[in-house]
């Protein structure tokens, strides 16, 4: 039972890493890219018409532990799990954050003094916030907590949805633009914990085990529960079908942005996903645990102390009584709001400098600011390369690289905010990549005008 529970825990952990704080830092600092419009609706490249092709952005963050903490080499030279070692590295609270955006197709057209933009992407964001006590109880048992009350309820929020956007960019003057975008959200899958109280008390005087629960998990198209032995997780990602594009799970969001050019200096600001939320109505299942259960007995307490399988035996007993209550009530998930403030300076004809500050209203009160500095150089007219140095996730060890290649009207963008992941993947807490393609036709900026950040 113990190992089965830990297998479920590892599945949730690894599953979250397939899919949320976004913290995309490089894109706004790379000159003249169509992808920057996703992060600031007032920013457009030097073109009259744009077709945005397939693109991808992925950002993963696992704090406190890395691959080498969880996997090691045994005496036979084989790769093996070293779970006790990984648990020792955990903090009181631990997080896994992931964001994955798949951009399918987008358009931009300059119509006089106004730009019109259209786009579609498939987005997924996830956050798992769990206490150290959760893997401790599952894997090591509760003997270490005799005489204590420990909380072990995890918080989870995972959403996958289509995003259809319509935006406008207004050129108030030749150097000042305002942008706005409305987004229709069509939900595909969701798992969201709404109440998260799970507490276990092991009394050392009367050998009493008490479990307090007030835990609620909402699911849409993801969880199926028909008994503890019939728990099915089916979080289908990437279902790009027309029938899911305008489903019953829907919501809206808004983006605002502004950009001003002061000679060689450009200042920009944006607020993204304002009012973003999805109302989940289709294929909804709610599972709740609520109440207090006490188990008293000397034999049980002795088994807890002496048998490393005892917690599993206790949970086998408790699961007979603690059957989740299932309902089918609609629920709403709120998506994090994101804010960018950035500046760029065209130092010379070939060198461009940039700086950026980022803030996100994260789920469960977990908000982390980030900032970055960048330098880009135009090697040849067709090739721009650059580097970034960033503070994010409470760490300064984020060195990024980016490349923008122009082949006729075609643009290819490749960037990462953390190159160390590629060099030392088993010692890294994060992984980040941005890929983008676009076709840019025509030019709008006067010859000789200083090329600022965009």
From TrEMBL:
Pfam families referenced in this protein's UniProt entry, alphabetically: DUF5723
Keywords: Signal
Signal sequence, start to end: 1-20
Listed InterPro entries: DUF5723 (IPR043781)
Domain DUF5723: 41-417
Source superkingdom: Bacteria
Protein name: DUF5723 domain-containing protein
Naturally occurring in which organism (per UniProt): Flavilitoribacter nigricans (strain ATCC 23147 / DSM 23189 / NBRC 102662 / NCIMB 1420 / SS-2) (Lewinella nigricans)
């Amino acid at each position: 039972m113990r190992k089965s529970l830990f297998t479920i825990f590892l599945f949730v952990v690894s599953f979250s890493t397939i899919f949320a704080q976004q913290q995309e830092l490089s894109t706004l600092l790379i000159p003249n890219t169509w992808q920057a419009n996703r992060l600031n609706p007032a920013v457009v490249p030097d073109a009259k018409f744009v077709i945005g092709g397939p693109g991808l952005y992925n950002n993963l963050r696992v704090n406190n532990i890395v691959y080498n903490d969880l996997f090691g080499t045994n005496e036979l030279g084989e790769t093996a799990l070293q779970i006790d070692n990984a648990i020792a590295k955990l903090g009181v609270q631990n997080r896994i954050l992931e964001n994955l955006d798949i951009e399918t197709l987008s358009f931009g057209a300059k119509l006089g003094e106004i730009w019109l933009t259209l786009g579609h992407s498939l987005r997924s964001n996830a956050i798992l916030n769990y206490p150290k006590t959760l893997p401790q109880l599952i894997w090591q048992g509760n003997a270490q907590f005799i005489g204590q009350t420990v909380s072990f309820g995890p918080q989870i929020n995972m959403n996958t949805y289509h995003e259809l956007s319509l935006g406008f960019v207004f050129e108030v003057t030749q150097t000042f633009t305002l942008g706005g975008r409305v987004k229709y959200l069509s939900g595909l899958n969701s798992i969201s914990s709404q109440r998260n109280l799970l507490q276990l008390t092991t009394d050392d005087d009367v050998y009493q085990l008490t479990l307090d629960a007030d835990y609620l998990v909402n699911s849409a198209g993801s969880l199926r529960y028909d008994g503890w032995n019939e728990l099915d997780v089916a979080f289908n990602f990437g279902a790009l079908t027309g029938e899911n594009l305008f489903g019953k799970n829907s919501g809206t969001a808004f983006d605002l942005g502004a950009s001003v050019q002061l000679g060689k200096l450009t200042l920009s600001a944006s607020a993204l996903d304002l009012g973003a939320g999805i109302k989940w109505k289709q294929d909804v299942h709610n599972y709740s645990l609520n109440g207090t259960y006490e188990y008293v007995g000397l034999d049980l307490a002795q088994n807890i102390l002496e048998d490393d399988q005892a917690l599993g035996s206790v949970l086998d007993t408790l699961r007979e009584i603690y059957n989740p209550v299932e309902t089918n009530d609609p629920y709403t998930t709120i998506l994090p709001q994101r804010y960018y403030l950035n500046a760029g300076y065209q130092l010379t004809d070939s060198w461009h400098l940039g700086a950026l500050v980022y803030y996100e209203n994260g789920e469960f009160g977990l908000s982390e600011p980030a900032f970055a500095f960048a330098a880009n150089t135009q090697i040849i007219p067709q090739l721009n390369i650059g580097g970034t140095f960033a503070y994010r996730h409470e760490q300064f060890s984020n060195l990024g690289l980016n490349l923008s290649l122009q082949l006729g009207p075609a643009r290819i963008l490749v960037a990462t905010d953390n190159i160390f992941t590629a060099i030392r993947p088993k010692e890294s807490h994060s992984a980040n990549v941005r890929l983008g393609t676009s076709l840019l036709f025509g030019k709008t900026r006067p010859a000789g005008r200083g090329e600022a950040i965009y």
